Amino acid sequence: MINSECCNLHLLSSFYSFIDSTKLKFENNGTMSSEKEEGSEQNQPLFQPNEEAITQIMCLGFSRNAAIKGLFYTGNQTADQAAEWLLENNDKNLDTPLEVDLQNLSDSSDEDDFLTTESFKMVFVVNSELNMGVGKIAAQVAHASIGLFRNMIEDEAKAEMLMAWGHLGETKIVLKGESTLQLETLAAQAAALHIDHYLVQDAGHTQVAPGSRTVLGLFGKVDDVDRVTGKLKLM
Length: 235
What we know:
alpha+beta
């Protein structure tokens, strides 16, 4: 449970920062106006993060810049997903502004193909009714990721999506599935929506029976994938 006192402090901090940054003042006629010039709408930031999620992430000890990055690279969805991404990428400099990341991408790329406001993610749904051990689950998730990659890399357009995903943090989420039937149903939904997916059928050498559906992997735009797996809980 997130500490309420911590959240209140961050809310107050965000409020005062907002007041300071907008620099509102009363003019001589007593009306309140902003120092922002006309046409400032053209200078609106490319990314508008979920402020409620930022507060929750900051309560976990991350900086505001880190919270913004976590939300950007996970499609501006939930604090949980952003925090998971931050933990997976704690070897990176998370406290620099997002704009620095985007500028570095621009400088290091020969073309603008990978500079996109669209976010992608790879999701793995684990069949929990099989009661697999941690090591077994890890191996099956690896099978799903390799299967997805092999299916997509031969298609030029899909390969570019994978490259964009790689440039934007390679978001990976592991979710809890209830049963084989649910995984098969989700796979059918993904197929209907033209979402790339791969359903692992294990050889059955350890822990599970041959042909068991262990993990469903999906890859695509965040909003598209969430249409299939958005209601599932984290593993």
